[in-house]
Specification:
Blueprint: H1 2-42, H2 52-59, E1 68-70, E2 76-78
Length: 79
């Protein structure tokens, strides 16, 4: 009986460490799942939608007074 108690005393720290590791992994998976579920709610994907019809109307309009400029980011803009 003495040998079993010695083995249990040696195994207890290893068991506790492994149990803590499993608990941490469960919490981390829960956090990742929560972030994955709620991220699409907070990201507004329609905010950056491009109106293609308005773009073609602007490109192919007969307005000859349109002036173009290049801003500080080297992007062409329409005045």
């Amino acid at each position: 009986m003495d040998d079993i108690s010695i083995l249990l005393q040696e195994a207890k720290p290893l068991y506790m460490r492994r149990k803590q590791l499993r608990t941490n992994i469960k919490y981390q998976c829960a956090v990742v799942a929560i972030v994955a579920i709620f991220t699409p709610i907070f990201i507004h994907t329609h905010k950056y939608d491009v109106d293609v019809g308005a773009l073609y109307a602007e490109l192919y309009s007969n307005d000859t007074n349109t002036e173009y400029y290049i801003d500080e980011f080297d992007a062409i803009g329409i005045i």
